[in-house]
Amino acid sequence: xxxxxxxxxxxxxxxxxxxxxxxxxxxxxxxxxxxxxxxxxxxxxxxxxxxxxxxxxxxxxxxxxxxxxxxxxxxxxxxxxxxxxxxxxxxxxxxxxxxxxxxxxxxxxxxxxxxxxxxxxxxxxxxxxxxxxxxxxxxxxxxxxxxxxxxxxxxxxxxxxxxxxxxxxxxxxxxxxxxxxxxxxxxxxxxxxxxxxxxxxxxxxxxxxxxxxxxxxxxxxxxxxxxxxxxxxxxxxxxxxxxxxxxxxxxxxxxxxxxxxxxxxxxxxxxxxxxxxxxxxxxxxxxxxxxxxxxxxxxxxxxxxxxxxxxxxxxxxxxxxxxxxxxxxxxxxxxxxxxxxxxxxxxxxxxxxxxxxxxxxxxxxxxxxxxxxxxxxxxxxxxxxxxxxxxxxxxxxxxxxxxxxxxxxxxxxxxxxxxxxxxxxxxxxxxxxxxxxxxxxxxxxxxxxxxxxxxxxxxxxxxxxxxxxxxxxxxxxxx
Amino acid sequence: xxxxxxxxxxxxxxxxxxxxxxxxxxxxxxxxxxxxxxxxxxxxxxxxxxxxxxxxxxxxxxxxxxxxxxxxxxxxxxxxxxxxxxxxxxxxxxxxxxxxxxxxxxxxxxxxxxxxxxxxxxxxxxxxxxxxxxxxxxxxxxxxxxxxxxxxxxxxxxxxxxxxxxxxxxxxxxxxxxxxxxxxxxxxxxxxxxxxxxxxxxxxxxxxxxxxxxxxxxxxxxxxxxxxxxxxxxxxxxxxxxxxxxxxxxxxxxxxxxxxxxxxxxxxxxxxxxxxxxxxxxxxxxxxxxxxxxxxxxxxxxxxxxxxxxxxxxxxxxxxxxxxxxxxxxxxxxxxxxxxxxxxxxxxxxxxxxxxxxxxxxxxxxxxxxxxxxxxxxxxxxxxxxxxxxxxxxxxxxxxxxxxxxxxxxxxxxxxxxxxxxxxxxxxxxxxxxxxxxxxxxxxxxxxxxxxxxxxxxxxxxxxxxxxxxxxxxxxxxx
Amino acid sequence: xxxxxxxxxxxxxxxxxxxxxxxxxxxxxxxxxxxxxxxxxxxxxxxxxxxxxxxxxxxxxxxxxxxxxxxxxxxxxxxxxxxxxxxxxxxxxxxxxxxxxxxxxxxxxxxxxxxxxxxxxxxxxxxxxxxxxxxxxxxxxxxxxxxxxxxxxxxxxxxxxxxxxxxxxxxxxxxxxxxxxxxxxxxxxxxxxxxxxxxxxxxxxxxxxxxxxxxxxxxxxxxxxxxxxxxxxxxxxxxxxxxxxxxxxxxxxxxxxxxxxxxxxxxxxxxxxxxxxxxxxxxxxxxxxxxxxxxxxxxxxxxxxxxxxxxxxxxxxxxxxxxxxxxxxxxxxxxxxxxxxxxxxxxxxxxxxxxxxxxxxxxxxxxxxxxxxxxxxxxxxxxxxxxxxxxxxxxxxxxxxxxxxxxxxxxxxxxxxxxxxxxxxxxxxxxxxxxxxxxxxxxxxxxxxxxxxxxxxxxxxxxxxxxxxxxxxxxxxxx
Amino acid sequence: xxxxxxxxxxxxxxxxxxxxxxxxxxxxxxxxxxxxxxxxxxxxxxxxxxxxxxxxxxxxxxxxxxxxxxxxxxxxxxxxxxxxxxxxxxxxxxxxxxxxxxxxxxxxxxxxxxxxxxxxxxxxxxxxxxxxxxxxxxxxxxxxxxxxxxxxxxxxxxxxxxxxxxxxxxxxxxxxxxxxxxxxxxxxxxxxxxxxxxxxxxxxxxxxxxxxxxxxxxxxxxxxxxxxxxxxxxxxxxxxxxxxxxxxxxxxxxxxxxxxxxxxxxxxxxxxxxxxxxxxxxxxxxxxxxxxxxxxxxxxxxxxxxxxxxxxxxxxxxxxxxxxxxxxxxxxxxxxxxxxxxxxxxxxxxxxxxxxxxxxxxxxxxxxxxxxxxxxxxxxxxxxxxxxxxxxxxxxxxxxxxxxxxxxxxxxxxxxxxxxxxxxxxxxxxxxxxxxxxxxxxxxxxxxxxxxxxxxxxxxxxxxxxxxxxxxxxxxxxx
Lengths: 479, 479, 479, 479
Description:
The structure is a homotetramer.
Chain A: H1 11-14, E1 22-27, H2 35-45, E2 53-59, E3 64-70, H3 73-76, H4 79-84, E4 89-95, E5 110-114, E6 117-127, H5 130-139, H6 149-159, H7 165-173, E7 178-186, E8 189-194, E9 203-207, E10 210-214, H8 218-223, E11 226-230, E12 235-240, E13 243-248, E14 257-258, H9 260-265, E15 271-272, E16 275-276, H10 277-291, E17 298-301, H11 306-317, E18 325-327, H12 347-350, E19 351-353, H13 355-358, E20 362-367, H14 374-385, E21 390-395, H15 423-430, E22 434-437, H16 440-447, E23 453-454, H17 456-459
Parallel strand pairs in A: 14-23, 17-20, 20-21, 21-22
Antiparallel strand pairs in A: 1-4, 1-10, 2-3, 2-4, 5-6, 6-7, 7-8, 8-12, 9-10, 9-11, 12-13, 15-16, 18-19
């Protein structure tokens, strides 16, 4: 018999795996290049990767300025602040906390003075040996003012006081275990580095003479820059007066691009490692359609990530695509559930059914994941209330059975419904007439990866070894 | 020869007709009814109707409380504030300024003490004889502290010091010219009133024993209330201990529901005067498809209002629906254009093309309106840059040739490109391969109104006479 | 036997009678006159009269601007706000609430449009027939959005729609009962009005060609203006293009300048109705010295109001003046008592003894009033702890036995320790070795008033009749 | 001939030497001891030593919490924040920047994790070898995120990873050159350290079983604690479960307590190194009286620091003490000079004369220092305008001829009027009838120091060697 499933009260915002930071960098030799303006626009385009804090550091070659704060890009910066950030070189960061608590002190980029002069670092990813590294550095006299991986990386680089900057970073990187896409800035250079597994994306663009680095290519589009190429796993690019040079870390046994960038994280208009995200999702939808054994009248997405997938599903299945759920675009982090009694209407605040689309219909509903199952259950209940005759749930990923240690907040294992329940149990729990997960094979067919993918959350095959006791709660500076 | 068309720099946020207020009311006899919580959720669902300010007034039958401020519902209220708003009767308002300048003093509901005791008023619409009424009231000794229509209405009601509340409101209403949907609250009653033309919507719902009034039915859905019926044009509903009673103003010569509620304003899941908005838009899309004379590979919406229409178009035309433009959902009112040089990338910040969908394709793009034409031009340019071979623009409304005086900010006439240019001139200006507007007849076929519509912005037939010199700039209290 | 005396917990900030508003006005014909800057500086100098909110209205003759907010003058205004307040005519207000609750809506000046055009009013004082006037106006159709006397006055003026402004104000004034010093502003004129009893002060100054009105002459000093004369009780001054003209209300049976302006409210450098406040206090000190029957080593003031009095006392008695208590100048309204257990150290946070001055000494301590007696008790305890051998309390006023209805918050009668206890009982309660109050006769000798004083709080002879049920809690708009 | 003297426009707030930080610490073994509440009250009492930022760190023995921000103690903390700061051990800091720019990042205490576990440091003073130490630490791999001396001290301590905490601090201290009074906190201990010269004060108190450390004894008075003794120059006190233990740094060649603590910084009710500040100032006043050769009618202080001195002067000279200048207590850091034209009234905003005291009088005015001379000139002008017949300026310190490097912002040498002008030149510049400075000998007579004083600003004899190029602008992290 299946173990009882607990319903969490605060399901509304927690069901989705949380995003995990976006990074951006710009280097130009042109004094007139407004690095702050470009970084601002770039971060705007990457806002979906992190809404907790935003920040940037810029340099005019001599003088370094920084501004960061809690909140969205649009709240953190204003015209006066941007006008005060003068320079032709810049890096920026939007953050959702994966390690470190939610403090201003943890906002990135981190700027400091060290043996390399002024240095700024912004990080997307998650190290798995942070605590070991921090202990070792402390024994050598290092002082830590935040609980971020970024500060550990900064200290490792600073220790190599005799090497030049690129060498120091490459040496420091060899101590790092886990996922990391980094943009690093000195007074007169921009560096990009992607870990050898390539877990998190990073790509290179150009705008006139300026080089641009970004987590996703959608940031290029928003500033009118051209996409040049993806940064390769294990590649360090050093950009300065002498142009761009590439260095390489020792290769990893395999590559392991996070599959969730395609399924959920990235914006549909981004291309990651050669594949457009929207197209990948449509392909997932077509694969889902192949699996689908029922008759239905309409296919509807759970907005917004289900949209591309549902179009692919409709195309392949011939079942008409329609809008059955309206998302309230004003519901954000600051929404409060005003009182206990109204809690149970939860999902209604965020999603509302279009009755005239659903009434009397056999409905296929497309979502990207089921984490704990509670939100799916509520959505299906909503559709039935609105008159849906049948509700068939199709999920564009296999069951999530294992937690992620490389930067996605898929929580601890016991909260993952699929880690302890069969598909049939989950179907009954969420109240669907049928439930289809995409198989790992079908997912591979859809994505057609040129390189290896990290699919550890589906099968537990972690490409990078996880220390026994790694936990993000170990070191908390509280405020 | 066509007169030259000026390009405005600040086109990005100004092209769309601005929304014009949402109102909400709740009345329960149950002491445990949390009117503030319900109003909060209701305003959340109506947020698309106004983002400038939000406010509510509640009463426990004896004691009246108010809170309002500039900003979104989520910013104006927090748990402490909601906890302090105790009562079983409430009204709320979200506002985008149509008359009155953008001041806190102008935020609604307006709460005051007068011959009727404590009274609160919230208004959606726009009077056209405000200045005459205000002058007359001033001659009688009235004092005006804001520049809102609402304060004029409040003063008119207060003048009828001998009548009971319902009679006083009905008498006051007979002086009002223009559009008005009102929720009014005393310590122990809730009143709803819709002008005889029915320009702005209002509907009635029930949640357990509580009566609910709202601009749109989507607000019922978000609190789990049942839709009962639309408030009829010219109807006053008085809700108190004795239940709900209806009163009626003298009927207008015709009804004149604002067509733009269907085209642009209302949420797709709302039903207005018997018609679902999403379905109305799909029907507009089908009508547009009938007009479309070209071959094309893909039909894409301008998000978000084009979505429903594009699905209808795709359905009727057989041209596949796809996502060709991604909207950055984080771009809001606080976005700043960081510097002059980057201005020309304007629309890129808000919309980005999905190249893999557009490359080499003949594209049909669906939008709801063309006001000044500059944004349409930028979008078409964007699509071509992304590889579209042909771009056919289809608009789900006739050309806007006349300004609105009843609550929609379609600006002054000279800014309306269609008021002085032919369709062919506009097509050339925006750079489309073809341009199709929906005809007024086709629009009527799509909407199938049971009652009269106001389509004055398309043909200048204003159902309510406009005073010669009415202007919203006449009376400004500045801060 | 004496009835038990209750000790209030929140004694720290409540013992002192609260200040009651400062007003300021400026009129110049010179376009270059910066009325906002002058008003800002004038309000700064009057800040001691009210710290709850600050505001100003200015006019350039055509265009009227307003800014007001909760907080100190220095927090409410900044350079940008002052730059936006353009004009050569202005009025300003600092407020401590005497009527009306502590809301932004109640901040002054009140600006509105009425039959007189744009009108702004700022009020120092307290009407005693507010509720009657408001009821009467409501019956005539008036609407009240605040709970201030000022709004009642504005409505009364607005009712006289046929009269010119001066006449309308004079007619309105004849309905007012209570204390009022008013500055009123239209687009092109400045008016000052002082009630016939002259309860609150107001004086006239000149700076180059500009006329200045202010609650106290210290405001002239801070802007470099010359003192011209006091506004007479019952006088209205109208200042416009035609210069300054005086009008007079029917005279009151007597004049009744508030004695507390001399004892406690006003700044020592101000001259009120012909008498310098510092000199008046020194004279009170000399009178106190005549009464004092004991031997002592040192006379020390309770800062800050006791300073002038203590110098006078020292001079007349020959007992050396010294500083025995240091006031923490950073303790203000925002101070919080961090926890229950620390409450009992209360007065220590605000006042600290200078042990080396007090050790082994017979100390005379000079304070301006004893309201509830709790603070005096704590201070005396503090002095003894610091080594004082004897503590003799001298108070520069007679016992306060009656509440004030004209603008000073001396609270309700039962909280006034002297209303139910003898001097000997109070001496024992506060723990003094002796306690001397100034007699009413001695106070008159010190002040030597040319006109009548209001000393109702000492003897209950209220010059203006108090309606039976007047209470400031009657009408509260809550937020 | 004397070189021309420039008048600075922004003289108003800059004339006074700026205060230089206050520190506070508490240690109790009692779980119920509310370290945050005590630290809050202690910082309140020390607020005069720094108004730029405030902060505290507390520990319950296991868990460490921190809160700091820009602004006054009353603005930085509120009840919720204090409730969140749980613990029985705490340190706090109020800051006026002497090194490091005015940034939140530079606010203290600094909290970090290092080889000693969690460590927090708060510093009053100024190191003169900061840059050398930072360079050396950088070469060893240290990373600096602020521009404070405190971070350098923290890193030095962290380097001694093998020593216990007291030893590590003592070893680190031996590298420090300059002035430093430090409170340091680990999870379970409180440490106080005063530099061997004893430039800045620190004293020890007890409240029940709790040990208290504070910059000045006035902090004890405000929490009801007993003064135990001054911390000796070069003494480290370690307070933990085992009680209090003292350690000593190698003694300095001499002691050098900053004379300005007595003249200007400290609160009159504080006792520093055995001497009460108020008494010291009265003694300075008596010494000044001995020097004074003229006849006069009244002696008045420049508030607030001149008060004690003027009383001493009056006592010794027999010239009556009076209040001739009223200080506007609401003028603070946020005051803005509203426009250019009003600038020249400068000092009038802060100080206003009491004409009735000054009219026709020969006035002695007592101030603590003359830095640039501009403010003194304005004050004398004000007194003459108010009718003073003669103005004799007496200054309770010798001429300031040399800048301070140990924590007082007496600016660069060229701004010090006395560094390049004779007393007679200064007298003429400020427009006084006579000008008397206290001689160094008289000052020593007044203070009667048991140990050496630092009087370098008067005679250039710096007790601690100043590196050639030390400047506080070397290292700036900008925001």
